[in-house]
TrEMBL record:
Belongs to the protein kinase superfamily. Ser/Thr protein kinase family. It comes from Cucumis sativus (Cucumber). This is Receptor-like serine/threonine-protein kinase. It is a single-pass membrane protein. GO terms for biological process: defense response. Residues 1-18 form the signal peptide. The keyword GTP-binding does not apply. It catalyses: L-threonyl-[protein] + ATP = O-phospho-L-threonyl-[protein] + ADP + H(+); L-seryl-[protein] + ATP = O-phospho-L-seryl-[protein] + ADP + H(+). It comes from the Eukaryota. It is found in: Membrane. The lineage of its organism: Eukaryota, Viridiplantae, Streptophyta, Embryophyta, Tracheophyta. Residues 337-421 form the Apple domain.
Amino acid sequence: MACMISHIFLLLPSVVYAQSNSMLNVGGSLIAGDASASPWISPADHFAFGFREVDDGLFLLCIWYNKIDEKNIVWFAQHDQNPVPKGSKVEVTASNGLLLKSSQGGELWKSGPISSVVAFGTIYDTGNLVLLDSNTTPLWESFNQPVDTLLPTQKMEVKDFLSSRKSQNTYSLGKFQLRFSEGNLVLNMRSLPTTYAYEPYHVIQAFEGNQVVFDEDGFLYIIQRNGKRVNISEPESAYPANTHYYQVTLNFDGVVTVSHHTRNPSAFNATWIHFKTIPNNICVAMRGNLSSGACGYNSICTLNNDQRPSCNCAPGYSLIDLNDKYSDCKPIIQPICEDGENNSTTDLYRLQDLPNTDWPTQDYELFKPFTIEECKNACLLDCFCVAVVYRDNSCWKKKLPLANGRKDSGEKSISFLKLRRNISSIGQDSNLPRSKGKKNHDTLVLALSILLSSSLLIILVLASFISRGFISHHRKKHTSDFLPRGNFGSMQKFTFKELREATNGFKEELGRGSCGVVYKGVTEVGSVAVKIFNDMFEDSEKEFKTEVIVVGEAHHKNIARLHGYCDDGKRCMLVYEFLSNGSLASFLFGDSKLSWDLRTKITYGIARGLLYLHEECNTEIIHCDIKPQNVLLDEHYNPKISDFGLAKLLKMDQSRNRVETNIKGTTGYIAPDWFKSTPVTTKVDVYSFGVLMLEIICCRRNGDMEVYEQGREILVDWAYDCYQQGRLDVLVEGDFEAIDDMGRLERFVVVAIWCIQEDPYQRPTMRQVIPMLEGIVPVSTPPSPCSFSSTS
């Protein structure tokens, strides 16, 4: 009888667990993506263990809250195990415990080492997943393998540590740790991929600390070796642990939060409340001489209202990883030591002041005592200096990379960031003195940013004007007779006097072309570019009318904005927004090169602008002259298509029949369609966009006669040869960022080759181009675009 009773008691746990669906029997398994398989649930339904889909078709083996809407993941198999695809399997084995296999059967992870034979496993209502032997002795516990979260009743021994995720929704290993060090609980960063720990950025002193306890009531404290407690946080009395979930989390941004959430699944608008954050201000806490700090290198950390860090690149810098705002930032244009006597003077650089901002580490020179003006000049005259920090009559010089950047009201420092004048995110300061040579250079750069017509101006026949009766073929009318009577939003009609005053008597000439001159001015809308057409010869008159009509009807973030116009007699002018970073051409073919990420961002913007012109605005428009000189960049390097002097308003009959016109764009960008008996459609812009794409990729002109190596003179031919030979790295030689992004590089080149097909019917539309560029749809292998260099 005694033996029988003993067996009954041994079997009792299995009966209880089986009834609650919390038991993991040896041989039991779960398959990722199998909708018919239920996860293993704790007895009171508080926690679940199984596969969670964390990305499209990818699953994570993990434990999560099961009763509340915010089903936070509190434990997962391991940091270095990427989410697994559908069909992956976890099973309970006698020798290895939990064993995770791929859909092909390969071993991905196991819970071992196991000291005995596993009889079964279970998940408790504490969230602890436990494997036991036949004597119900625990052999392995998830509580002893913490990842980034502690739950009530969970403890950390001296050897234990928490590791952050890489990002909020990425489960690979992050750079932050919470661990014991010399009896204290510390927060530190580590140098991935190694385990080397940098010096702590926050210390909770316990001296003789031996164990961290997060008890069942929600108290978090350290137990010293003598048994005394060092309290870290205590639960909020209004939110008792028997009705609320509590957790401690080392977040991906390096902040530890102690939080609670109601257990009531029907509670309205319930969410996690972070009532304790460690440290209070991580931006200020970061001061180590190694590592980038809470944010990436060359970034600035500010504290949000929830005491979490917000990261932004310093002015003149851009993210290396556009999908991760916490990543490092790089200079949009690499600072260099200029040759000549004007090295690093105010002719080339300006200083942007950043109040309450500091990069407190990695100084390479200190001046004390120093005035603020002396500090600024010291940086301007030092080509290695990219920033100076001034505080208390002291001046610290900084060089790249800038680390531990922060902006905080408690910071009494003011930083001055040195920026090249043509890349400042604020714009150019025209009041500073300039040398004669540099002034001419800057005027040329600015001139490229103004909407001048191309050098090959051909007569534009506007069929739409004929149908509306705005143009007479037999007599010339005043220009205003041809202007539209429609609604042009905020476009304003200026008088000649108003624009003369705005430009200070047409004093500052920015550039000139065959149809007119461009001046800089200031109106109530801010800085503007005023384009004055010549004495209204037939070509310039048509270009003026076309630009007013086309741009007046176009409203898109990637189309240059026309503020207004003037048609006072023969003095016809257009008033455009002034774009401080000039034309794309100056960054592709000049000394200042844009980063690969920024070039791809610009490509996306141009494509969206063309899609708008072709399909989304009121009247379909063919631009007819897409080239880098006609793409302008605003202060954030957003591209805006400009110069619509050759544009065509596309009517429905024009999409089926050839338009009899001798319009031609610019040499090197002209589609073969203009020279054949084929309909001229929006595909001519697609062709020019393909050529422009290759120039953006390679940072060199199509048909560059300065390239002396045989076979490289015509970029479009050379690009196809490199693609065929599998040598795309040659196209971007020396651009290691582009080479490291070979997948996108190849995709961009292939899309460009499709765009420059000689047969317009083989070219994609811009609506097809955009998902191809973004990698949303696959791109097939393009045929040879044929030889077209002779026609361009």
